[in-house]
Amino acid sequence: MKPLQVWLPQLKSAATSGAGRDRDRALGEWAGELSMWLLPGAERAFRWRDGDFFAGVPAEDLNRVDVYHIGNNGVAYGLEARKRFSSGRINDLLDQWLNCKNLPFYIAPTRIEFENVPHLKGHRITFSSRRIKVGPTNAFPIVDLGDAGTFTAVWPPPGRTVKTVSPDAESAEEQGPLDSLIEKGMSWSVSRKTGTRNLWVVVGWPEDIQSLVARGEGADLMLARQQMVSIATRSVDDLQGAAIEAARLASAHVFDGHTWQALSWFWTLYAQGGDEAVVFGAEDLGFKGKDATDLWRNTEFRHLMMKRIRIRRAWGAVGLFWALLLERLEDKRGFGLCQRCSRIISGRSNKAFCSRRDNPECFRQRRAGDQRSSRTNRASKKPNPSMPRGKAPSP
């Protein structure tokens, strides 16, 4: 894969309103740090080192954004990368994302605690914990009450003709200001204007995806996944059209950026296999050394690693998935649909069914069916014991 830089906020990663402005502030101040704190009330940007490099940036809302580099080996480098990414790798993350089904909702947190929040006083940096109140990020009106306590909430509401772009922001703006209410195992948003109670959606994603998702993400992420599924399905018959549509929709979350060769190449290789992986990779660049330390003693190698390069940059989990989808389509590697379970699958262009890795249950059932068919065919070819064998006598 192509190297990628991924910015993962801990709180909502919307690219609109104040969150979008804070995003641009963080991107503008970044100088190679692995984590950027967005700090209301900070008078200026400041940096420090505690094993790794960190920075604090004046902002409108408190947030922490961790920066990860994905090398062309698919390995992630950054703070606790092996926890944020499954085994520290991208692997089949895009396929998992596209095939998420029957997602549960859960009770939204009303307070979140941040540890080690930095504060700059003069030339001294101190740290403290802060607990912040989290309000509703969306408000979806209930349009139908079903049996056994079921109901249907939708966005956009019936009669609305404008196409939805951000369900979270649009619903919160129309219904807000909003207060939170936790009742009977559900999260509700209550409109201060009308007192109307609406559903507050917080989605529970599979473990490998949840570790990448900012707390407070809601329907915007669901909409993005729906759009990506539609594009992946379209690529089966219209690869070029799918790629064009993906580029249009991804533009708010995926864009050009910069990094240093050391972050994109050296550290992702080192995360993969330590000194051995780096030494082996350096040989392809024309450098030899006993280990990583020996390579860094080489002035030319050091200058190459400190070279600034362009890189594709993704903001938030949704940006990561858009970037992975874009690369797949740009490389003219579209998708297929399993002819048995309709799962979106990737691989060879003539691939017709799920592999064991794609969907173990579909694979198992198909193999069981194949074996039954094989036994039936063998049985039909067995000679009938009541019929004489050999050549029939001449009349």
Would you give an account of this structure?
Among the domains are: 4-102 and 213-330, no CATH class; 336-379, no CATH class. Residues 389-395 have low confidence and may be disordered. The longest helix is centred in the C-terminal third of the chain and has 24 residues, at 261-284. The strands form five sheets. Strands 1, 2, 3, 4, 5, 6, 14 and 15 form an eight-stranded mixed β-sheet that branches. A three-stranded antiparallel β-sheet has the order 11-12-13, with no helix packed on it. Helix 6 (219-234) packs parallel to helix 11. It has 395 residues and is α+β, with helices and mostly antiparallel strands. It is built from twelve helices and 17 strands.
Question: In a few lines, what is going on in this structure?
Answer:
The chain has 395 residues and is an alpha+beta fold. Helix content is 35%, strand content 24%. Helix 7 packs antiparallel against helix 11.
